[in-house]
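lol ok so funny story. i was supposed to be doing the assay writeup but got distracted and ended up predicting the structure for this chain instead. priorities right. anyway since i did it might as well share w the group, maybe its usefull for someone
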Amino acid sequence: MSEPIAAIATGSAVSAIGIVRISGDGAIQITERLFTPLTGGKLSDRPDRKLIYGQLTGCSGKLLDLCLCTVSHGPSSYTGEDTAELQCHGSPTLLRAVLEELFALGVRQAKPGEFTKRAFLNGRLELTEAEAVADLIDAETIEAAENAAGQLSGAIGKKSDAIYSALTDICAHYHAVLDYPDEDIEPFLLQNYQATLKSAENTLASLQKTYARGKLMNSGIPTAIIGRPNAGKSSLLNALLGYDRAIVTAIPGTTRDTIEEKIRIGQVLLRLIDTAGIRETADEAEKLGVERSFAAISNASLVLAVVDGASAFTDEDAAILRFAEQAPKAIVVVSKQDLPGFSSASVKTDLPVVEISAETGEGLDRLESLIQQLFPLPSVPAGEILTNARQAEAVSLALDYIRAALNALSMGETPDIVLTEAEGAMQAIGELSGRTVREDVTERIFARFCVGK
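and the output, tada:
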């Protein structure tokens, strides 16, 4: 039994259409008390997933809207429960009034992610598929959306389920021979399963490798723009964004804090961080800004080291390039190409160098092209890229167990030792798909969802 819940599924802004979603025991019958098909008959007798036009009234009988409604009977609905959706005109006031009428009939407000959580608990979605729903909603690039859609269709689940099934067969065969020695069962020989374990290792290792790119694809590549004061960092930020986000003046040290913005460059999502100019200073506020600059550098996956090409190359510039050379990936950006006296000849580094003018836009296309080359998409099908730490941890743990099983096999250990490792891998894969996930993990996963989904 599940108590009926309801929520506005289309946000709080004014829109052409607003959807109120209801799910749980009696959801269709409760909705039926407010919605009357104009063609007559009962809502509960209508076929699933068919739009029905009708009158929406309050409990007092006053007309609220002329709208559409669909119903889906469990267990074949999204949540696995009886559900109804009212597609009203998109007035937030109207939608809240509809919710109040439902609450008066015993429905309660849905919590964030509760509809998808019920879909998971009722076996309609695996956990990776449920997480993909949130990823699809939050996607900021088409690549992230395509990967989330692939996960929602079960791409990761198919891989993990195949491994789980193969390990189950191994364990079942072993225990059958152990428990029924007098039966005519094929002898259990560990060597016969070495190829199965090796295949599982290869699949899990390939999945594990996708996480680094998947994390960056979803959350954006942390990109620190660094340089000495007045080198052109904020101008570069503004030029990449296409509008004036940071204050730019001729006075060195204008930027005292980090400024963060996201921008898409081709298939790459950057989380740009404009930092305070790096230099020795007695100013307390500027000193704090410099400290935050170093923190941004240490956490960056990409560093754009800006050098003022219209002034002499300094020891401070050389020190900044050394910081950049320690980053996972870095590009030297020689700025102010439009000014007299510009030169990049004195910039000595093994890092790639791009000359630009933030004022005219010259060189920005070359910079963007180079960034895309540094962060190519993995050559794996959409949906097979791990996108969060929970998934990556479960895959890594399963991989460790599989490798331990293979090692035990190669060392000639007894079958029970190898099977113990295989069962550990099954437990970890269960955490990935949601077969054995803990309740606190489930709560944490669905807490990130929006209300109404």
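Residues 155-179 form the longest helix (25 residues). The CA atoms of residues 396 and 438 lie 18 Å apart.
back to the writeup now i swear
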